[in-house]
Design goal:
- The chain has 178 residues and is of the alpha/beta class.
- The chain has a single domain, classed as Beta Polymerase, domain 2, CATH 3.30.460.80.
- It has 2 helices and 8 strands; from the N terminus they run E-E-E-H-E-E-E-E-H-E.
- A 6-stranded mixed beta sheet has the order 1-2-3-6-5-4. The chain has a two-stranded parallel ribbon with strand order 7-8.
- The longest helix has 12 residues, at 120-131.
Length: 178
């Protein structure tokens, strides 16, 4: 794994540059490497990780931070309403890396990872369906969990709570209602 982490500097010198990996700001959380990529860096960072041996994308998901706009992020990363989170795995190195990218609420859009990891096709559709985040150049960006005519995105924190009525056709066999 290539790393451009800067060494610590003495108190009288200029502060150390924040640690980076693949050009993205790097942090370690609970023993896992976390990269904070900008939207412009997103695909480049994922491609660099793939080239470095992270051969498996095990998850693409999102978070709606509408209620937490002042959460803590590294300097240089601006908090947005949504965050797309990608988890990559290197089987050879027995290592994981999490990539977090901020996505604006006004136009929630990120590039697809389908060309790099074809297995992300369904994961990106789920994020689109639940959060309304569009994945540019996705081969089939249609709903995957909700009915096609469903309005809204159920995991958005400001989405109306909806319900589908349960329809019972008859009592279960062998059951009597007394």
């Amino acid at each position: 794994m290539s790393d451009t982490t800067s060494p610590d500097t003495a108190a009288d010198e200029t502060p150390a540059e924040p640690p980076t990996l693949y050009g993205a700001l790097r942090a370690d959380t609970h023993g896992q490497t976390v990269l904070h990529a900008t939207l412009d860096q997103y695909v480049k960072v994922v491609k660099a990780a793939l080239d470095d041996g992270y051969e498996m994308c095990i998850d693409v998901t999102a978070v709606d931070y509408i209620a937490f706009p002042t959460r803590t992020l590294p300097d240089g990363i601006t908090a947005e309403r949504f965050e797309v989170v990608v988890n990559l795995l290197s089987l050879q190195a027995k290592s994981r890396v999490r990539i977090r990218v901020q996505v604006p609420g006004e136009e929630p859009k990120v590039p697809t990872l389908f060309d790099l990891y074809p297995g992300t096709e369904a994961m990106e559709r789920e994020v689109y369906d639940m959060f309304g985040i569009v994945f540019d150049d996705h081969p089939d960006l249609t709903r995957i969990l909700m009915p096609e005519d469903w309005e809204g995105h159920p995991l958005r924190k400001d989405d109306e709570i909806g319900a589908i009525p349960v329809q019972f056709s008859s009592a279960a066999p062998g059951r009597t209602d007394d």
